[in-house]
Structure to design on (85 residues):
């Protein structure tokens, strides 16, 4: 039986938020302030995991940027939608 492997980068909404912030600020993701300084990344990942029926959104500020994460996986930075690559 083949083992299922997790693609942490694509299965983690918190890593997707980091990618969206990096894209919006034209900054390398490793240069960004840690996300855990403003929101609990593990809680965010659990809240919007693929096996949940939560329908909602989380909004928070990251520096001068407004971040919104929706239960459908949509991430908005300052009102601009960022999609997973």
């Amino acid at each position: 039986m083949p083992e299922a492997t997790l693609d942490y980068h694509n299965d983690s909404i918190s890593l997707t938020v980091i990618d969206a912030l990096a894209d919006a600020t034209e900054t390398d993701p490793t240069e960004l302030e840690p996300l855990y300084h403003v929101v609990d990344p593990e809680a965010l990942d659990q809240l919007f995991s693929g096996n949940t029926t939560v329908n909602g959104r989380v909004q928070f500020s990251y520096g001068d940027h407004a971040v919104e994460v929706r239960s459908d996986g949509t991430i908005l930075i300052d009102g601009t939608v960022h999609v997973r690559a």
Observations:
- The helical segments are 8-11, 13-25, 41-47.
- The CA atoms of residues 1 and 7 lie 19 Å apart.
